[in-house]
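QA checklist item 7 of 12: single-chain prediction sanity check.
[x] sequence parsed
[x] length recorded as 329
[x] structure emitted
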Amino acid sequence: MNKEILLKRITMAVMTLLITGQVYAQHQKLINPGEVWPDNRGEHIQAHGGGIIKIKNTYYWYGEERRRGLDSNKRYVSCYASKDLTNWTFKGDVVQMTDPENLGQRWVLERPKVFYSKKSRQYAMYFHLDNATYKFARVGIAVSDRPDGDFKYLKSFRPLEHESRDIGQFIDDDGTPYLVFEDRPLGFHIVRLSDDCLSIDREMCLIAEHMEGGAIVHYNGLYYAIGSALTGWKPNPNRYATAKTLEGPWSEFKDIAPKEKNTYGSQSTLLLKVSGKKDTTVLFLGDIWKPKEQWDSRYLWMPVQIGDGKLWLPEPTPFKIDVKNGTAN
């Protein structure tokens, strides 16, 4: 081959690699609700039904891994890390689990949420564990010594002997961990976890509303709780209530957005409080589910208008979050 032609081909190949690398490493300046959200590899983030914890100055986002080509006998939980909540680095699938309880085909692992125990210095992942008919109705727990390490299955149980399907997490300002779980016969439970985060310490309250996708935030002396109606994959108008303490009494539930918008096609999964030097922003984190193309399910993140017992989710638009100052615009 002519040396000049060979040199041109090598140059073109190098340029292609450089361009591809730039695309993959492109710095995101905005969060774009409902759009494809590329990670550091340029691939759409797969963290559905997920939860977020902050360790020092790093956020860890865990969720259901739904990419195409997965082993159908296993269930996967992904982990991503970020310092700005906008640009996320894929840390790997921290759960790659075969059926842990002989649940049969189409067994379920959903809505993973991770807590850190200062007592045990372990990370405990809670998730909804079920069979195909949703009759098992338990929480499963897996543990790891690192936030991005391999989580090993530990056990499953029914919190306080109650059915548990959709779960949510809440970590109060003092670091106390709480689990929210949906109990089909009774309603919406809020329970405090033990110091090692491996069991239930006590029930805070039962809200007699049949809701899932539970999310809670503490803001300016009030607790705000959000839930979604039981309509499966189909979006519905999410609603919120408030209380001065987690024990209640809780106010009546009200819509967080125009009823006809069905929460802009999303379902709540977390309320994330971002406190900084100048202000505090509360982010609504929701999933836009695509049941027939789950790998393409999207995320609706948006700052809420909150205060004085009112919470409102505005029409989603691209926004910038400044985690150092706690501001969004």
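[x] summary fact logged: The longest strand covers residues 89-98.
[ ] second reviewer sign-off
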